[in-house]
Structure formats: structure tokens, C-alpha cells
């Protein structure tokens, strides 16, 4: 089992470093061109991947993020999370207020209908039961 791990761990590290190197843009590869890093990773089995992970890649993300084109990079919205976006928060407030208004109006209509029903019932009682009480 230990013998197998001695080969699998460096192989997994090499595969990870190789894929990471291939997915890294050319301008983020440090010290050497990206193609040189690919050869170093593949030729020097343990040292190459460790060197790539330690010193081969610019680890700080770009300020505006990485997008497919320069136009997208300059026109990307600043807010990433919905709770950081004031427009989204305002839309939630407006939606909550409008749903509350709808609930309030429905409740008011129910109350008015109940009030009308009770008034009519009271009028019927007064008109129908009035003479019975007097006699």
C-alpha cells in the first residue's frame, strides 16, 4: 500500500500542477514562459510541480477579475454578492412592501365585507325582532 502511495501522490501532484499551468493565462506565469513551465512540470516529476506551485504562478487575482475579453473586464459590475448590491436590496424592499400592501388591502377588504354583513344582519334583526320585543 505504501509503495502505491509513493507513486500516486507525485502523480496526482504532477497532474494537478500540469492542469493548473495549462489553465493559467500567459501573463500570470512568473519567471519563465508558460511552455517552459509545462516542460519542467512534465520532465522533473516531483521538483517541477513543486516549483510551479511555489514560484511559477502569480497568486494574487487581478483586480477586475479574469473575463474573456477586455470589454467585459471594463464593464463588469462591481458587486459580486447580492447582499453587497444596493439595487438588489432596494428591489427586495420594494417587493416586500408591495406584497405587504397587497396583504393589507386584502385584509381591509375582508374587514369591510364583514362589517357590511354585520350591519345588514343588525338591520334585519332590528326590523324583524323590534315588534316581538315590544309585545
Please give a structural write-up:
It is a single chain. With 135 residues, this protein is an all-alpha fold. 71% of the residues lie in helices and 0% in strands. The chain has five helices and no strands. It has helices spanning 2-23, 34-43, 47-56, 70-74, 86-134. Helix 1 runs antiparallel to helix 2. The N and C termini lie far apart (107 Å).
Number of helices: 5
Low-confidence stretches: none
Assess the beta-strand content as a share of residues. under 5%
Structural class: mainly alpha
Helix-residue proportion: over 70%
Strand segment tally: 0
Shape: rod-shaped
- Amino- and carboxy-terminal Cα gap: 107 Å
Characterize the main sheet. Answer: none
Order of SSEs: HHHHH
User: What is the mean pLDDT?
Assistant: 80
Q: How large is the radius of gyration?
A: 37 Å
Oligomer state of the chains in this structure:
single chain
Task: Write a concise keyword list for the protein shown above.
135 residues, mainly alpha
List the helices and strands and how they pair.
Layout lengths: L1 H22 L10 H10 L3 H10 L13 H5 L11 H49 L1
In short:
With 135 residues, this protein is an all-alpha fold. The chain has five helices and no strands.
Amino acid at each position: 500500500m505504501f509503495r502505491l502511495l509513493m507513486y500516486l501522490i507525485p502523480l496526482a501532484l504532477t497532474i494537478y500542477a500540469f492542469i493548473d499551468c495549462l489553465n493559467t493565462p500567459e501573463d500570470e506565469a512568473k519567471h519563465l514562459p508558460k511552455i517552459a513551465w509545462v516542460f519542467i512540470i512534465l520532465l522533473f516529476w516531483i521538483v517541477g510541480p513543486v516549483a510551479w506551485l511555489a514560484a511559477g504562478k502569480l497568486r494574487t487575482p487581478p483586480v477586475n477579475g479574469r473575463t474573456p475579453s477586455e470589454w467585459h473586464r471594463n464593464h463588469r459590475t462591481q458587486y459580486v454578492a447580492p447582499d453587497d448590491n444596493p439595487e438588489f436590496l432596494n428591489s427586495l424592499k420594494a417587493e416586500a412592501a408591495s406584497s405587504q400592501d397587497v396583504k393589507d388591502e386584502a385584509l381591509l377588504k375582508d374587514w369591510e365585507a364583514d362589517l357590511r354583513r354585520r350591519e345588514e344582519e343588525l338591520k334585519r334583526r332590528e326590523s324583524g325582532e323590534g315588534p316581538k320585543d315590544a309585545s
